[in-house]
Amino acid sequence: MTVYAQELKAIAQSMVTRGKGLLAIDESNGTCNNRFEKLGIPTTEENRRAYRELLLTTPNLANYISGLILFDETIRQTTKEGKPFAQVIANLGMIPGIKVDTGAKDLAGHQGEKVTEGLDNLRDRIAEYYKMGARFAKWRAVITIGNKIPSDACMLANAHALARYAVLCQEGGLVPIVEPEVLIDGEHTLEQSFEVTDQTLHSVFNQLHTQGIEYDQMVLKPSMVIAGQESSHQSSIDAVAEATVKCLLKNVPATVTGIAFLSGGQSNEQASAHLNLMNERFYDQCPWPITFSYGRAIQQPALDYWQGDSNRVAEAQKRLLHRAKCNSLASLGKYNPDVERELGYG
Fold it and tell me: Among residues 16, 141, 29, which one has the least CA distance to residue 67?
């Protein structure tokens, strides 16, 4: 137990408040710039700042969003009036969070596999982010399904890094989001996805236990069990919901504070529909709340409409709020396709 134990428990519980989820706006500058380029938006720091301000100042966002995950550049930025983003988020009734890994790099000796880096100086960076107002953190590991991969070496390297990161966060006052993402890329079947997700979660929780994590002071951000995007056998919504919950119940300790799924390349509607069915059918069977921690699956309609035009901010914010509401309803098992047409563009 750390000196932050009670604070961490309370924050973790707030992050997965019933009917709310997390909004990930933690894309690296490179990723953000790529999305801007596709829409013809100039890739400047000011445009990135303006876009992030649009997102986090959306009116009534706190009705559906408990916290926002920021990138290093973003947590250091301010609104046009000069107010630090982390302070603005807290004042609006949401929790500021921070991505602390430095990206997935090639795993030496294992072609086609990645290991996430960022443990160097992490204790000091956590202390700095805490002073800046962050109260939770995120670290993403990437697992690829392919020919004879993932290897045991890849599983272990990523699980070990996730566990060391998580314990450092709890020591420094940040709730760790533990994100082992099994990529949706590829031709794998639902059954293969289940097998690899099962192995991944087993390895991650084994390492978390070994490193001494407090489960009631963390949030798990897993991928859903789903067939690869190039698979000839695409999964039904029912199959994804059932397989995902089965895999979680098999591997995730009941004392973990909550589950907040990544969308992982699913369409906006798919991500909402899968989350909805899990809550509609399996809520009573799950010892932890199941909600969302989505990036593109909430942001994209707003970005598509905004396109760097300051005159379009208010309407873009309506699109963001709409997607946040859709996923809030999904986290309650109350989402349906009719909600998509609420604003007249779904």
Answer: 16
